[in-house]
Amino acid sequence: MQPISVDVVQTKLSEFLNQEVYLHLETTNGAYAAHRFGQPMAVCAYIRNGKVQFERATIAGDKPYRVGLKMADGWIYAQGLTDFEVDAKGRLLLAGHDEEGRLAVSLQLSRTPFPMSVLDEEGV
Amino acid sequence: MNKERHVLLVYPHPDDESFGKAGSVALYTQAGTPVTLICGTLGELGRNMGKPTFANRETLPYIRKKELEEACRVLGIDDLRLLGLRDKTVEFEDPEWVADKIEAVIRDVKPSLLMTYYPKHGVHPDHDALSHAAVIAVKRLPKEERPVIYGSAVTHDARAVLGPPDVTYDVSSVLDTKLAAMRAHKSQFEAMFAQMEEQMAKSPEARQQVEANMSKEYFWIYRIDD
């Protein structure tokens, strides 16, 4: 991944407007947050392959960034995004990494489902 | 260490087999004992992405699979079984269904020893879910065919609740192999190794302390009542 370029990400977000797309949305402070890192509890939430459609998509902020996706009946939101990648499959991967490079938040969009197990793919 | 016919490792994530256990595994394989590793998931939802980051959420499982294969090569594990479960979801699957998968491997390799996390003392929900399923699988066997279960108890209160470990292995003779297996999990352990090396560089005493900690591995025998 590379540091977020607002223009590139905004252009890419707009390409996903007004169509059914697959969403991966996640935030985590790590499974061992409470056990090893002194935090009150491990906190994580994720959706993999939520099928969504949004009519407005905006990146805002300045290192880190926020993204809001406006749907007909609701919102999708992520804060703390630092890095992005458009991968070979045309998927937009956004992530927020802490100072140790650990993933803290992730928002990803794809026109095809994200794999549930890469073992299902050929040659893996 | 007891001579075993076959050792079966049952862990949910790539790196579980190395962290706190790789020395024991190396002692077994060096003694000529065949070792089979069941790895439940590919750690798809790990938050460590390497330092500096070289993985992302979608490339991570491919990378961790390769890292796991490298760790197996280092440790002399030549039988790796991937269950294809998904990170963080094991506890939500039907335990009997997960146990079916483990039971099939047990019936195939007929282990005399099964190593997993100690039930309810694994800290990570996937650890506890897979050790629970492993116990279900072992219970299905006739008593005389059941492998001994070595559990890793990693909760802070393990010793208070379970007492001292039943088995302590001195793995100082294979410490290099253990470290190499851990290092194979580059995406997960690079940051930790950096901290460890920083610690060891402080003084010879600090180095000795880190090495002493790494040289002991502890297991609690999980006893099935019926």
Automatic annotation (TrEMBL), chain A:
InterPro entries tied to this protein: DUF1806, YojF_sf
Name of the protein in question: YojF family protein
